[in-house]
Amino acid sequence: MFGLLSVSMINLKRNIFCLKAAIITGCFFVFGCSNNYQEVQDLAKKKMPVDKATQVESYLSQDGIVKAKLTAPVMIATTVSDTPTTEFPKSLHVDFYDSTQKIQSKLFAKYGLYYNNKQLVFLRDSVIIFNVTGDTLRCEQLWWDQDKELIYTDVPVHIRKPDESIDGTGLTADQNFSHWTIKNAKGPINVPDSTLPSD
To answer: Which of 56-63's residues contact partners 24+ apart within 8 Å by CB, and which partners?
Structure first.
């Protein structure tokens, strides 16, 4: 009986010792993971260089010809792996020029995000474009493809011309906003007179 009790007590002490050892080892792993996680976070921050500039003025040119001028109060450039971006968190304004350097259209947005490798700009929040003929586009989101010199969206759009108003969902246009196609148009649309001349 005593032998069995002493064996049981020894086993109990051994189990308690193993349990304590497991708890202490677990604590080391937990603290170790916590420290490693923090180190990973710090390392990630170090690998994401951020450049911030204020009162930005930038020009877009192709073949030596200035196509557009961008101004913004704040610009934040971030390099994350192979997807560098340039953010305009406090609005931006773009003037688009023709081949004679005359302004053809103006663009405003409260927020912009440029994907450097793709030459794509995502615009949102009170996007407005107007051209020299008096056409005005308003929408909440718009993409600007600098390579193709196109602007497009799939969200509701509102176009105001000097003599008519057109609403719809979706639009494609050249970046000067001189030629545009509206999808799913609604509202009165003026159609040119197609009467054939009489002989």
So the answer is: 56/88, 60/146
Domain ranges of the chain: 1-47, 50-182
The pair phi, psi for residue 76, each rounded to 5°, is -125, 115
Per the structure block, which two tokens stand in for 133? 């003929």
- Measured between alpha carbons, how far is 146 from 68 in angstroms, rounded to an integer? 10
- Tell me, what's the pLDDT at 96? 92
Show Cβ contacts of residue 83 under 8 Å, excluding neighbours closer than 6 positions: 115, 117
Quick one: what percent of the chain has pLDDT higher than 90? 46
Q: Whole-angstrom Cα distance, residue 30 to residue 27?
A: 5
- Fold category of 50-182 in CATH: lipopolysaccharide transport protein A fold (2.60.450)
pTM above 0.70, yes or no: no
CB 111 within 8 A of CB 144: no
Token pair recorded at residue 29: 């792993």
Q: Which of 42-56, 143-157, 172-186 has the lowest average pLDDT?
A: 42-56
CB 121 within 8 A of CB 114: yes
